[in-house]
Amino acid sequence: MVRGTVTKAVPFGVFVRVADGVEGLVHRDTLNDPSLPEVGDELSVEVVGINLVRRRVDLKRAP
User: Fold this and answer.
1) What is the pLDDT along the chain (63 residues), one digit of tens a residue?
2) Which end of the chain is less congested by CB atoms within 10 angstroms, N or C?
3) Per residue in 3-36, is it b (16+ CB within 10 Å) or e — as a string?
4) Residue 49 near residue 20 (C-beta atoms within 8 A)
5) Residue 45: how many CB atoms within 10 A of its CB?
6) Can you tell me whether residue 28 is helix, strand or coil?
7) Phi first, then psi: what are they for 20, rounded to 5°?
8) pTM score
9) What is the predicted pLDDT for the residue at 33?
């Protein structure tokens, strides 16, 4: 688990910066709240997948 800052909100979820130069997507389905967090909010997230080829990090909101 890591803490990160929401950098961008999109209809399907939010992007969270978890380290310098590293952002991941928290999909709307994994958020336990019907409203999306706003840019600048801090979240505790868990890394659930890393795709080196597509350069993607999948995250889910930590309980």
Assistant:
1) 999 999 999 999 999 999 998 999 999 988 877 778 999 999 999 999 999 998 889 999 988
2) C
3) ebebeeeeeebbbbebeeeebbbbeeeebeeeeb
4) no
5) 24
6) helix
7) -60, 120
8) 0.87
9) 76
pLDDT of 3: 95
Residue type, 41: D
What three-state secondary structure class fits 30?
Answer: helix
| Three-class SS state of 60 | strand
Tokens of 28: 């709307």
Place of tokens 């969270």: 16
Assigned token pair, 32: 């336990």
Going by C-alpha positions, the residue among 56, 39, 36, 38 that lies closest to residue 48 is 56
